[in-house]
Automatic annotation (TrEMBL):
The keyword Transport applies. InterPro entries: ATP_synth_Bsub_B/MI25 (IPR008688), ATP_synth_F0_suB (IPR013837). The lineage of its organism: Eukaryota, Metazoa, Chordata, Craniata, Vertebrata. It comes from Coregonus suidteri. Subunit b, of the mitochondrial membrane ATP synthase complex (F(1)F(0) ATP synthase or Complex V) that produces ATP from ADP in the presence of a proton gradient across the membrane which is generated by electron transport complexes of the respiratory chain. ATP synthase complex consist of a soluble F(1) head domain - the catalytic core - and a membrane F(1) domain - the membrane proton channel. These two domains are linked by a central stalk rotating inside the F(1) region and a stationary peripheral stalk. This is ATP synthase subunit b.
Amino acid sequence: MLSRVVFVSANAVKSSGPLGAGLVQLSHLHTSPSSQAPVPALPDKGGKTRHGIIPEELFQLLYPKTGVTGPYMLGAGLLTYILSKEIYIINHETFAAACMGTVIIYGVKKFGPDVAAFADKLNEEKVQKAQEVKDLAMSSLAQAIQDEKKEQWRAEGRQMLFDAKRNNVAMLLETNRRERVHMVTNEVKKRLDYQIALQNLHRRMEQEHMVNWVEKNVVTSITPQQEKASIAKCITDLKVLAKIQQAKATA
């Protein structure tokens, strides 16, 4: 909530002269890329200490200049200086604090390992649960990546499918066009065949009419005498042919 107030105030004073510009630059400082850098992970265990509270680094820092006994002499001299100058006065509270410190140290030494093991167990359980959640999330994300790659592959193949469908549609259109052309050709051929048959019919009927007309005119032009003469001529020809056939048969 406080950050929202700060950002709103910064936006409000953006146009209020040098002071507003300075506040805006300060807000940009707090949101710079360096401030958004990831925080380093905390160590699982603390550093080494001496006597429970004094860091080992302090002894390592003083060893080159004071030797091994330097840190102890520094502590003793500092304590002597505080007591001699009465910066700290020993009273009943000092003894009470010493007793309480002794009880606390005893409790830490006595129950500290068990409490630490219990805390470590709880911490391990929490870390294991977090790891399981992380592994599950990683597996789901990996599956999502695989699904996305598969969908991309399908999207790439969709163009080929569209091309195939386009070709099929073009083939269907071409087939329909050829079928219609064939149908038109057949219809035109039927009409032409009909015209040819009609012309042939007209020609045959004209021929038949002409033959009938000629035959009728010929028949009507023959007189009875011509008919008798032609019959006699036919009989004579038949007799001559019969004699020739008999001569050939006897020869």
